[in-house]
Amino acid sequence: MRVQYLFLTGIPGEVKSDLIATASLINMLAKENPKAVFGVQKYVPYPATELYEKSIECGLVAPQRLEDWIQYGWMNRELAYPWISPDNLRLIQMISFCSVFMFRENWLNTRSNAFSLLKKAYAPIARKRFQGMHYRFFPELKIARMLGYRGY
Questions:
Q1: Is residue 110 part of a domain?
Q2: pLDDT tens string for the chain (152 positions)?
Q3: Is residue 151 part of a domain?
């Protein structure tokens, strides 16, 4: 049975131990079901919700113009999150980035053959990085951004 899990990170009040617990849960679920598909997204504050109000209290600058709402989307990881420390942000980025590559089944399997090869080559590195919580030195993310990928 193929199960798909989606994890939400970057919620106001989330601390490093919460992020590490999320990564541990992902590891445990992946071991239990190697065919599981994982996604890790960063919370997006939308108006008229309790978390949006909490985000404002934590320093989020609410959009003032219609054009400012463009950056509010689930794929936009560039939104300023004043409640997330730079260290926790790097940890979130590592969890999200590595989870795409480290599991056998994933949405990336639908991409090009070149991307499939990249995924196979990087998967062991992603697993080691993820399992050891090695996120402080993370050149892969910079390389992905230089290649034009903005998903993390």
A1: yes
A2: 678 899 999 999 999 999 999 999 998 998 888 888 888 888 888 888 899 999 999 998 888 888 888 777 666 666 788 999 999 988 988 888 888 777 655 555 555 566 677 777 888 888 888 888 888 888 888 887 777 766 65
A3: no
CA distances from 66 to 54, 70, 71, 72, 140 (A): 22, 8, 11, 11, 34
Six token digits for residue 80: 């300023």
C-alpha–C-alpha distance, residues 2 and 33, integer Å: 8
The parent domain of residue 117 ranges over 4-146
pTM for this entry:
0.80
What dihedral do alpha carbons 27, 123, 110, 28 form, nearest 10°?
A: -10
Distances (CA, A) of 74 to 70, 79, 151, 152: 11, 10, 9, 11
User: Which residue has tokens 């080559």?
Assistant: 121
